[in-house]
User: Which sequence fits this backbone?
C-alpha cells in the first residue's frame, strides 16, 4: 500500500513500513508525521499484525531528521501527539518494531530508531544527535532513550558533541543489535522478525510491556511487585494453553495472539 510519503507492505503477520522521501533523504515534515501516525495506529489496532519493520527508501538515508527545507519554505509545523514519525511518543505500543537502518539516521531519524525495540544496521549506517551544532536539542526522546540504552557517560559523549557514530561503533556501544552488509539489511531484519513471530505474540507483547514499564521503578524488587494488565491477559489467553499443549504433543504451536 502506497501512501504519499510512506509505503506499507504486508507479509503475513509482518508489516514493512518504508519512509519514502528519498529526494529529501527521507527527512520528515508535519504531513509525513501524521501519515505515519495513521500507519502505526492501524498496525497497533490490527490483530493480524504482529511485528513491524521500519526502514528508509534509497541507499543514502534511513531518515535525516526534520525536513528543515520544508520549514524554510514556509511549511506549517504541527505538533504530533505521537511524536516523530508518529512513533517516538507512542508509549502504549506493545507490539515489537524493528528499525532496519539503511543509511544516515540523524537527529529525529536516530530518535525513530531508538524508539524501536531492535536496530539492525547496514554497514553504511551512521547515527548522530547533532542538534546542539545548530542550536537545537533532541526533544523526540533521544536525550532520554540513549542514556538508558548505552549508559550516561557514553551517551553524553555522543550528545554533547553531536558526533557521528558508524554502525560498527553503534554495535560496540550497544544500541545496535547487528551490523550486516547493505544488500542483506532487509533480509536480516526480516529474519529477526520471523524469529519473534515463532514465539507467542501474547508472550512477546507481555515481555515488551513489562520490560518497558518496569523501567519506571528504581529497583528490580519494586518492578516485580507491580501488577501488569498484560500479565493478566497472558494468563487468561489462548496462547497460554496452546504453548504447553503443543510442547506435550511435540508439535509446533498454533499461536492466535489471543
Assistant:
Amino acid at each position: 500500500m502506497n501512501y504519499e510519503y510512506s509505503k506499507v507492505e504486508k507479509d503475513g503477520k509482518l508489516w514493512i513500513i518504508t519512509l519514502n522521501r528519498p529526494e529529501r533523504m527521507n527527512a520528515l515534515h508535519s504531513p509525513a508525521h501524521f501519515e505515519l501516525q495513521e500507519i502505526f495506529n492501524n498496525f497497533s489496532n490490527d490483530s493480524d499484525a504482529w511485528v513491524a519493520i521500519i526502514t528508509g527508501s534509497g541507499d543514502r538515508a534511513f531518515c535525516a531528521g526534520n525536513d528543515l527545507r520544508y520549514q524554510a519554505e514556509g511549511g506549517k509545523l504541527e505538533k504530533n501527539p505521537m511524536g516523530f514519525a508518529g512513533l517516538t511518543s507512542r508509549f502504549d505500543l506493545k507490539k515489537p518494531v524493528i528499525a532496519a537502518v539503511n543509511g544516515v539516521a540523524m537527529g529525529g531519524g536516530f530518535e525513530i530508531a531508538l524508539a524501536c525495540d531492535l536496530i539492525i544496521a547496514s554497514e553504511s549506517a551512521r547515527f548522530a544527535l547533532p542538534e546542539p551544532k545548530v542550536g537545537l536539542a533532541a526533544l523526540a526522546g533521544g536525550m532520554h532513550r540513549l542514556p538508558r540504552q548505552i549508559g550516561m557517560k557514553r551517551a553524553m559523549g555522543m550528545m554533547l558533541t553531536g558526533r557521528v557514530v558508524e554502525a560498527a561503533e553503534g554495535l560496540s556501544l550497544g544500541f545496535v543489535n547487528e551490523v550486516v552488509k547493505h544488500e542483506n539489511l532487509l533480509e536480516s531484519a526480516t529474519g529477526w522478525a520471523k524469529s519473534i513471530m515463532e514465539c507467542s505474540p501474547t508472550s512477546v507483547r507481555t515481555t515488551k510491556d513489562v520490560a518497558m514499564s518496569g523501567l519506571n521503578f528504581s529497583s528490580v524488587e519494586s518492578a516485580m511487585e507491580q501488577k501488569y494488565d498484560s500479565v493478566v491477559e497472558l494468563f487468561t489467553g489462548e496462547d497460554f494453553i496452546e504453548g504447553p499443549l503443543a510442547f506435550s504433543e511435540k508439535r509446533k504451536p498454533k499461536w492466535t495472539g489471543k
Q: What stands out?
A: The chain has two domains: 6-197, 201-248. The chain is about 40% helix and 15% strand. The mean pLDDT is 96.
